[in-house]
């Protein structure tokens, strides 16, 4: 087992044209929302409440993507031991946790007028909440460990186990209770609603890519500063 | 062939030595076990107050209360299992011994399994008395559920404690990491126990038991694979 040695030289990624990408993403998101809201007629049962679909479903989609990223980058880190994998996993987890939080809050805003309650112990809600707590644990673990290599190894292990647990949590909670309406997928939907959803999937994906990238740049910079501080403390160059 | 067998024998000897060492430390002090068992029973009593004196309500809530009492008391045991070594600086020498590192984990796992298993037996007996639960007809299946639940609980508990016990804020970190991960075990164990106590008319227990078995297999394997990375860092 090769122990991942943190390289003294660290390549801090350049911001490059990512800020431009950020502005483009913002503009595209505004367009996507405008398009979705103006092209979709009020739903027969839900009325304009249906519009929350265009932020709720894409947010939950980003949640799945980011957690898959945490799993992949954690495995890569355990295998190759490169700092960048660790920090990419951490950045994905932060963005992911944010989007799970958003998904939950948007779901509650939709649930109150639809079901009459802010929260119900339905399978999908409950498993999303449990997932949120798993990744809060992951981020808390990172916050409590100062030594970078240990932080990387441990959080990678926690990330992998957490991701393995996702389908099991989902199954167990589903057996426990089910009330949520069938998942909205583009196939189950009228075309007037579908295009708005698809375009928002794209907008949210761009946003997640942008956020993870900028978070990763910041994390790499912080990591380089840590290393420089260590080197200075040891009296090196 | 002989070489393979002797290697297997080596692993087993290491596992046994670690488990025996942990259990001997525990047996000689006894303070840890007595305190953890007392805490488990105290939690049961508090659940009794929370759920009211109505006998039927208590009986319905018994499986959930029992598992939570074992969980809360067990968490203390997991951090303890590394504490003695950390306090005496014995973990590094232990890692320097030749041989596979995962055997350290398996040894600790077996010791904790016995520790939590004993705790569970005492808490379950106390809980049946306090919450007026009769011995169910399907008691052998109930014992299987208890055993499977214990395996899942102890496997992840021992694994996460290997990190939490060596970090700042270990008291809060272990439950924060562990409890959400244990949701499937707790749900399955509670629901299966509940079904079995109440005659299991819907034949639910079987599905939950299968889930427990799957969970145990997956996480016993995953934690053994990950332990090497965690313990060396």
Care to describe what's here?
The complex is a heterodimer of chains A (about 240) and B (about 230). With about 240 residues, chain A is mainly alpha-helical. Chain A is built from six helices and no strands. Chain A has one domain (about 20-235). Chain B has one domain (about 1-230). Chain B has nine helices and no strands. Chain B has helices at about 1-30, 30-50, 55-90, 90-95, 100-130, 140-165, 170-180, 185-195, 205-230. In chain B, α3 (about 55-90) packs antiparallel against α5 (about 100-130) and α6 packs parallel to α9. Chain B is globular and about 55 Å long. Chain B starts with a helix and ends with a helix.
SSE succession of chain B: HHHHHHHHH
Judged by helices, strands and strand pairing, the structural class of chain B is mainly alpha
Rg for CA atoms of chain B: 19 Å
Listing every helix as H and every strand as E from the N terminus to the C terminus, the arrangement of chain A reads HHHHHH
The poorly predicted ranges of chain B are: none
Q: Kindly give the count of domains of chain A.
A: 1
Morphology of chain B? globular
């Amino acid at each position: 087992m090769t122990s991942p040695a943190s390289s003294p030289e660290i390549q801090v990624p350049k911001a490059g044209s990512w800020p431009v990408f950020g502005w483009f993403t913002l503009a595209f998101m505004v367009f996507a929302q405008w398009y979705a809201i103006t092209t979709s007629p009020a739903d027969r049962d839900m009325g304009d409440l249906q519009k929350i679909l265009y932020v709720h479903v894409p947010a939950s989609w980003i949640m799945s993507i980011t957690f898959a990223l945490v799993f992949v980058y954690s495995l890569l880190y355990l295998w190759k031991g490169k700092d960048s994998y660790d920090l990419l996993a951490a950045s994905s987890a932060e963005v992911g946790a944010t989007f799970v939080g958003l998904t939950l809050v948007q779901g509650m805003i939709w649930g109150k007028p639809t079901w009459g309650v802010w929260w119900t112990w339905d399978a999908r809600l409950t498993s999303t909440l449990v997932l949120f707590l798993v990744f809060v644990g992951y981020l808390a673990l990172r916050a409590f460990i100062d030594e970078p290599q240990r932080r990387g190894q441990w959080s990678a292990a926690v990330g992998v186990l957490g991701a393995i647990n996702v389908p099991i949590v989902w199954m167990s909670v589903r057996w426990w209770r089910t009330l949520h309406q069938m998942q909205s997928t583009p196939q189950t939907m009228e075309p007037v609603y579908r295009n708005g959803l698809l375009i928002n999937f794209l907008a949210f994906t761009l946003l997640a890519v942008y956020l993870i990238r900028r978070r990763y740049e910041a994390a790499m910079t912080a990591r380089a500063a840590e290393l420089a501080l260590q080197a200075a403390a040891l009296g090196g160059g | 062939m002989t070489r393979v067998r002797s290697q297997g024998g080596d692993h087993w000897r290491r596992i046994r030595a670690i488990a025996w060492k942990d259990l001997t430390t525990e047996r000689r002090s006894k303070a840890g076990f007595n305190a953890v068992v007392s805490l488990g029973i105290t939690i049961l009593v508090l659940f009794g107050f929370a759920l009211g004196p109505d006998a039927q309500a208590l009986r319905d809530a018994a499986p959930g209360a029992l598992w939570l009492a074992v969980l809360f008391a067990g968490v203390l045991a997991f951090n303890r299992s590394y504490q003695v070594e950390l306090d005496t600086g014995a973990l590094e020498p232990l890692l320097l011994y030749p041989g596979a590192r995962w055997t350290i984990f398996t040894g600790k796992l077996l010791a904790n399994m016995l520790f939590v298993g004993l705790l569970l037996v005492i808490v379950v007996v106390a809980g049946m008395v306090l919450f007026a639960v009769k011995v169910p007809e399907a008691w052998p299946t109930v014992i299987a559920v208890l055993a499977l639940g214990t395996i899942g609980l102890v496997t992840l508990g021992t694994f996460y404690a290997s990190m939490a016990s060596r970090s700042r804020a270990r008291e809060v970190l272990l439950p924060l990491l562990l409890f959400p991960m244990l949701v499937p075990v707790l749900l399955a164990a509670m629901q299966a126990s509940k079904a079995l106590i109440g005659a299991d008319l819907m034949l639910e227990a079987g599905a939950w038991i299968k889930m427990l078995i799957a969970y145990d297999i997956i996480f016993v394997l995953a934690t053994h694979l990950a332990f090497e990375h965690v313990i060396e860092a």
